[in-house]
Design a protein that fits this description.
- It is a single chain.
- The chain is of the alpha+beta class and 235 residues long.
- The protein has one domain: Alpha-Beta Complex (Sulfite Oxidase, Chain A, domain 2).
- Helices cover 16% and strands 26% of the residues.
- Strands 1, 6, 7, 10, 11 and 12 form a six-stranded antiparallel beta sheet that branches. The protein has a five-stranded mixed beta sheet with strand order 5-4-13-8-9. Strands 2-3 form a two-stranded antiparallel ribbon.
- The longest helix is centred in the N-terminal third of the chain and has 19 residues.
- It is globular, with a radius of gyration of 18 Å.
Length: 235
């Protein structure tokens, strides 16, 4: 009896966290295979929203249900600043235009939900590597903490962010992000579960703490969040 209650409690807790971490109870069109494209310099795809890229079907990210901590956030670009600070030598406060002044890249990336479904999009953004190079991380920095407009936090090892050429995305499927998708910026945390894909990014903090836990990680979700790892992540 007690064992049954414990198991039931664990299942209910997992379902509660999965729902609130940005996953929907009704998955989008199923992706039968992992989709992983090479990192490529962004190219002009015209003005229309695209539904497939190089023969790969893309999901409509605007159709995904929102289960964020505080709902979609409204960000005023006139006052918006992306703060990059912490264990760095040259902290920055960048406008939206200043972030986008860097080289843009595109990559097919699949977002994986803890419930088991996935959604694939062509993400466009700037390399985290380029942003971090400007602030010059301290030799002791080992963790990147992402802060959302809604006070959401999550983190990744600095080495992982750099090695995987992660994008700070501003577009998906050839259109700018909308509020429900994280406008103006969402981290495209390739091969990490959805709760690592911080939306409405307002601050990127370098930390010397290798064990920092974000919002859902403090409530029991794994800090690694690794799915379908690949030995190569592009140039």
């Amino acid at each position: 009896m007690h064992t049954t209650l414990r198991i039931t409690g664990v299942i209910l807790l997992a379902l509660m966290i999965a729902t609130a971490s940005g996953c929907t109870t009704a998955p989008p069109a199923a992706q039968e295979k992992e989709v992983k494209g090479p990192l490529e310099p962004a190219r002009d795809l015209g003005t229309a929203v695209i539904r497939e890229y190089k023969g790969k079907p893309l999901n409509d990210f605007k159709a995904l249900s929102d289960n964020s901590v505080r709902g979609p956030q409204s960000v005023d670009l006139a006052s918006y600043r992306l703060v990059i600070d912490g264990a760095v030598q040259s902290p920055q406060r960048l406008t939206y235009a200043e972030v986008l002044s860097r080289d843009h890249y595109q990559k097919l990336i699949t977002l994986h939900c803890v419930e088991g479904w996935s959604a694939t999009g062509l993400f466009e953004g700037v390399l985290m590597k380029d942003l971090l190079a400007q602030v010059i991380p301290s030799p002791s920095a080992v963790t990147v903490i992402f802060h959302g407009q809604d006070d959401y936090t999550t983190s990744l090892p600095l080495a992982t962010v750099l090695e995987r050429n992660m994008l700070l995305a501003y577009r998906v499927n050839n259109e700018d992000l909308v509020a429900r998708n994280g406008y103006p910026f969402q981290l495209a945390a390739e091969d990490k579960l959805g709760y690592k894909w911080c939306k409405w990014v307002v601050r990127i903090e370098l930390s010397t703490d290798p064990d920092f836990k974000g919002f859902w990680e403090r409530q029991g979700y794994g800090n690694d969040a690794e799915v379908n790892p690949s030995p190569e992540y592009g140039p």
